[in-house]
From TrEMBL:
SUPFAM superfamilies on file: P-loop containing nucleoside triphosphate hydrolases (SSF52540)
Keywords in alphabetical order: ATP-binding, Nucleotide-binding, Transport
Organism: Shewanella hanedai
One Gene Ontology MF term: ATP hydrolysis activity
Signal sequence annotation: none
Protein name: ABC transporter ATP-binding protein
Matching PROSITE patterns: ABC_TRANSPORTER_1 (PS00211), ABC_TRANSPORTER_2 (PS50893)
ABC transporter domain span: 6-236
Pfam families membership: ABC_tran
Amino acid sequence: MENNAVCVNEVTHHFGDFTALKQMSFAVKQGQTMALLGHNGAGKSTLIKIILGLIKPDIGEVSLMGGANEGSSSMSSQGVPVRLGYLPENVSFYDKLTGEEILHYFAALKGVSKAKVATLIEEFGLDYAKDRQLKTYSKGMKQRLGFAQAILSEPDILLLDEPTVGLDPHASQFLYSKIAALKQTGCAVIVCTHELSLIEPHIDTAMIVAKGERLALGSLAQLRALSGLKIQLKCEGLADLAEKEPLLSRLYRHDALYFDREQQDQVVRCLTSQYGKFGFSIMEPGLAEIYRHFMAESESSHQALALTPSLNAQSKTSLKARLFSPFFGMKNV
Ligand SMILES: Nc1ncnc2c1ncn2[C@@H]1O[C@H](COP(=O)(O)OP(=O)(O)OP(=O)(O)O)[C@@H](O)[C@H]1O
């Protein structure tokens, strides 16, 4: 696609005998945010390092702004240098420098003015500590400084590895408001995080990975549909209604109604116009629930494979393809 800022195509990478990433493909468009989700050791940081050009994948390609990936010297398809911003998982700068000196150092490297540094220091609430050595900073202060460093050059592509770890709720909200402003300028953002409820309102897409493989990719709505998880509706007197109304009876279990998005209008119409029920709560599966669903599905498919040692390699591949199919494990009411 023309406006893909990041395009990862069939990337596989090994560390010795260990396969850290397997045939990973995805794209992030300009002005969009993708959450990169997975268990510890799933391969998220490795993927980020491959996008940064710090690791060259064994197989596959990465394209940044339509051009080949050369890390910090990448050029877009228009021959313009690609500006990359990166916040690593563990922010570690030279700790005898002050906060301001660190930002001045990176500003000089990236050709950014000292005035911009002063603005960022103030915006990030670090003015009071700008002359203090980094070793006196708290975890959250270092994180804020790291984020300021990552966005100094108004990047085309921003890669954030666990950006909200150590941040208080106010600072996390500020970080996501900065991301929203950057997206308006066309910046593509990839965020690795385990804080799913925090990132959920801010994403355009999410990719869930496990053991170096892509389990699911899409918008929240697409992931919901792919997971087959149902919308839940609760209201008073539901058990009685379910007894007399066949539509509700089919959807009723454990004191609630469970249905797909396409059925929602019909259910709500039935409750309101037929039974005069207006006080109800509707809950859609959130990112955390969707994530747990795909992780559980992946775990059970790996167990199924482990329990069938007699299968040859070809049969295992075909069983795996079936287990990982979007339609495997779809729950029907
Ligand atoms: N330089 C390396 N040498 C050998 N193995 C490595 C190296 N870097 C990463 N790995 C292994 O690759 C796998 C993926 O690691 P990676 O850091 O990408 O995971 P992650 O998803 O970012 O995990 P976390 O959520 O814990 O940060 C892990 O099993 C890790 O031990």
